[in-house]
Amino acid sequence: MAVTIYSRYYGLATVVVNAVPALALRPMPPVVAYPDALIHTVLAGETLDLLAFRYYGREDLWWRIADANPTVTPPDIAPGDILSIPPLRVATRTAAPVSR
């Protein structure tokens, strides 16, 4: 199972679960309280990909919001939930350095 160097799963081992190859679970990054993070109260109909598009201009960065809010399950966000939105400089960094 190949992933690009830009994937959040880059460098993870492949495991076999019920005879199906899968990626090993990615360790949860430490929760960091960024002083310049935004606080967002979820409204009806909002999803993490919509919030990522609103705040970062890229819906594919939804997982950075999920990582910053480990107690929230992405499909189960509900109106009234409070989310921390990490700054763009954090959301667009790559997890693994690129070596050539």
Short description:
By secondary structure, the chain is of the alpha+beta class. It has three helices and four strands.
Strand content: 15-25%
State the CATH architecture of the domain at 31-91: Roll
Name the CATH superfamily classification of the domain at 31-91: LysM domain
Q: Please compute the radius of gyration using only Cα atoms.
A: 15 Å
Characterization of the model:
By secondary structure, this protein is α+β, with helices and mostly antiparallel strands. It has a domain at 31-91: Membrane-bound Lytic Murein Transglycosylase D, Chain A, CATH 3.10.350. Helix content is 20%, strand content 16%. The protein has three helices and four strands; from the N terminus they run βββααβα. Strands 1-2 form a two-stranded antiparallel ribbon. The longest helix is centred in the middle third of the chain and has 9 residues, at 48-56. Mean pLDDT is 78; it is low at 95-100.
